[in-house]
Amino acid sequence: MTPDAADRDPTSPPPSLAGRALGWARARARARARRSPAPGRAATAAGRPRPWILPAIALLIAAGPLVTLVGATLLAKHAQRDAAAAEATLAPRRAAEQARAAARTMLASAIVQPGPAALLDTVAAAMPADAALVRAERQADGTLELEVAVSDPDALRTALRRVPMLAGLRDVRQQEGEGRTHVLLRQAAP
After folding, report:
1. In the β-sheet with 170-177, what is the strand arrangement from edge to edge?
2. Contact at 8 Å (CB) between 133 and 123?
3. Residue ranges in the chain whose pLDDT is less than 70
4. What sign has the CA pseudo-torsion 147, 148, 149, 152?
5. Please, is 145 exposed, middle or buried when counting C-beta atoms within 10 Å of its C-beta (0-12, 13-18, 19+)?
6. Cβ(185)–Cβ(169) below 8 Å
7. Per-residue pLDDT tens for 9-19?
8. Distance between first and last Cα of the chain
9. Of 26, 82, 101, 185, which has the maximum CB count within 10 A?
10. How many helices, marked H, and strands, marked E, lie in the chain?
């Protein structure tokens, strides 16, 4: 160890970039002061600084944020253009994925629900003896519609509510005709 190294504070940070630049400028100013000025420039060097230095420094200080702003704007425009191009490229794929998801949803609801034969067997077993099934339909969204001709609609509703699979059937319409009542029942998709 040298005596100079022992005297230095080990925790002091190295000088900053601005501090080094200021030290360099002072060293250059001292070096110029030591040199003798040329005879024609004696008044300019001894008096005030050159007139263009202050506006140039002000321009450099103001140009930093402006250049950053312009650069950020250009980068944002490029990013927006790239995002729009990617969106246009991916639009057909996204539409196909949505169509596949809708088809999967429809197939999943069809798989969960009992088949037509099982449904008709359940309805036939649950209906009163005097009831006749006029129409049974399962729509694309999974909604079940039954139209039943019966003499006593209340007895039909009570009989269908006893079966858990048909308990969700609700009256949509009743219509009198030919001595019997036609009841339209609908069950929402599960």
Report:
1. 132-138, 144-150, 180-187, 170-177
2. yes
3. 1-10, 36-49, 189-190
4. negative
5. middle
6. yes
7. 667 777 777 77
8. 85
9. 185
10. 6, 4
Neighbours of 6 (CB within 10 A): 8
- 100 phi-psi bin (left φ>0, alpha ψ -120 to 50, beta other): alpha
Alpha-carbon distance of 71 to 140, in angstroms, equals 55
Distance CA 145, CA 118 (A): 15
pLDDT one-digit tens code per residue, 140-156:
777 888 899 998 888 88
| CA neighbor of 150 nearest in space, from 167, 134, 136 | 134
pLDDT of residue 126: 86
Give, to the nearest 10 degrees, the angle between helix 153-161 and helix 116-126.
120
Tokens standing for residue 127: 């209906």
> Any idea of the CA torsion for 12, 13, 18, 24, to the nearest 10 degrees?
70
Residue for token pair 């539409």? 95
